[in-house]
Amino acid sequence: xxxxxxxxxxxxxxxxxxxxxxxxxxxxxxxxxxxxxxxxxxxxxxxxxxxxxxxxxxxxxxxxxxxxxxxxxxxxxxxxxxxxxxxxxxxxxxxxxxxxxxxxxxxxxxxxxxxxxxxxxxxxxxxxxxxxxxxxxxxxxxxxxxxxxxxxxxxxxxxxxxxxxxxxxxxxxxxxxxxxxxxxxxxxxxxxxxxxxxxxxxxxxxxxxxxxxxxxxxxxxxxxxxxxxxxxxxxxxxxxxxxxxxxxxxxxxxxxxxxxxxxxxxxxxxxxxxxxxxxxxxxxxxxxxxxxxxxxxxxxxxxxxxxxxxxxxxxxxxxxxxxxxxxxxxxxxxxxxxxxxxxxxxxxxxxxxxxxxxxxxxxxxxxxxxxxxxxxxxxxxxxxxxxxxxxxxxxxxxxxxxxxxxxxxxxxxxxxxxxxxxxxxxxxxxxxxxxxxxxxxxxxxxxxxxxxxxxxxxxxxxxxxxxxxxxxxxxxxxxxxxxxxxxxxxxxxxxxxxxxxxxxxxxxxxxxxxxxxxxxxxxxxxxxxxxxxxxxxxxxxxxxxxxxx
Length: 549
Ligand code: TEU
Ligand code: CA
What we know:
Elements: H1 5-8, E1 11-14, H2 16-19, H3 30-35, H4 37-43, E2 47-50, E3 54-55, E4 67-71, H5 78-90, E5 94-99, H6 109-116, E6 128-130, E7 149-151, E8 157-160, H7 175-189, E9 195-198, H8 215-218, H9 222-225, H10 231-241, E10 249-254, H11 259-265, E11 275-278, E12 286-287, E13 290-291, H12 296-307, E14 316-317, H13 327-330, H14 338-351, E15 355-359, H15 380-384, H16 386-391, H17 396-406, H18 444-449, H19 454-466, H20 469-473, E16 475-478, E17 486-492, E18 497-503, E19 509-512, E20 520-524, E21 536-539, E22 544-548
Parallel strand pairs: 1-2, 1-15, 2-5, 5-9, 9-10, 10-11, 14-15
Antiparallel strand pairs: 3-4, 6-8, 7-8, 12-13, 16-17, 17-18, 18-22, 19-21, 20-22
Helix pairs in contact: 14-19
Bound molecules: 1-O-alpha-D-glucopyranosyl-D-fructose and calcium ion.
């Protein structure tokens, strides 16, 4: 197994807007992150990934960049960024930033120039096409609702936007665009950052035939958008011109890709990306905003697929992020077993083969927000997809019920620091977004005091993981892929073997397993000793046990 620093670290994602507000204007900021670095150091995470911190009109909370070399005003200044980086480095941690280069904001200078006239030298920085009479060039759809094409009244041409119409897609066919992107990357790398998480990177290459989506493709256009013919060529160029020149990590957000693309993107011999963030696990049982039933057998299969490609691949393991609901609400039981199931999910995330990526708040078991009205949502995706929902026969009320399990906004409520107003996120009383009222009992302050908290469980597991190369690099074996409730797997290292047993259900059960007595119990989320005999173990609801031999 090839050793790399980014295989041995635990990544922690920060959504700066919701993390901590240092100057009480209701919006989280870079200084807020600095003030919480000691907290993160205590937790034991090593690499921080911050969601976009660049100048932006915030149509999509910073994923619409107006200026790649300026800091978002609400977040602070370039001096604040430089201080954040040096404070991170002082603590021997690493910093990764978000690279959003499939699209820019429509307020980016390149786009302002581009749309100003057909002869402008920036015209080809974006993707312009003539319409078909009064119709867009093809039937491609935007993830945030409606057509992916917007008509521009100046030239009467249409420009392409996979996301909102304020996020025009860059034209990667244009060499100059690629050079600009590489230049932006070097600007930040030369400051000393440790890598990029690359937003929707599989979408950068567009099939120049611009064929219509078929009926089947229509509801999941990502499966087509991620098959651009020059994707691998572009990434190889980026790698040779930029990435390979620094000791950094590149993590591609890989929404919609198939297995073949996954294998190619992150194959170390291909020299494209180091890691990919796959969506299969996080979107299990889900079709857009609709949550369907899923089962553990399907989930386990997905872990096996990504873990066992070969020694040239290294997976990432994550159960939530800023675009998805809270993990304890989706995979655990956020009611009577919130604490216990959150700990189980910690064990799952931190004992798999792959780099764990935690999301702010998961370490204290934060839950989904209980949305009841459409007006409570902030995310543009919610309103954007409303008409699609209605036209598919779903009522407004049902739409909200679905969103209560699927909306991106669950992850964007304030980080819960204490039981005070605004969850201790800010002392301003009119924050940009909601705080969950359950901060009265789910908060960092409580978790730091209580030695049996979710926080301390994460902390301990991170420590165990960091101190064991066998746990990090050991081979992965799912021991009972077909069991409906128990997730049991081994990690076989050079010296040690770990055995993880997770009861992912609300019921107690007796699980037959021989030779358990050969192992010793290393860590668990139980207070009492488990009942083990030579050929079975009794598991209570949401028991999570880690054995070693
Ligand atoms: O996400 C891409 C992404 O695929 C999801 O947001 C997806 O489009 C959506 O959830 C479909 O239901 C990245 C960022 O993580 C996200 O925050 C941005 O909104 C998006 O790209 C555009 O930059
Ligand atoms: Ca602020």
